[in-house]
Amino acid sequence: MVVGAFPMAKLLYLGIRQVSKPLANRIKEAARRSEFFKTYICLPPAQLYHWVEMRTKMRIMGFNAEAVKPLNEEAAAELGAELLGEATIFIVGGGCLMLEYWRQQAQRLCKEDQRRAAWGGMQDEVGHLALALEALQEQVQALAATHSALDELRAQLQEVRLQLCPSDQPSAPQE
Question: Can you give the pTM of this predicted structure?
Answer without folding.
Answer: 0.56
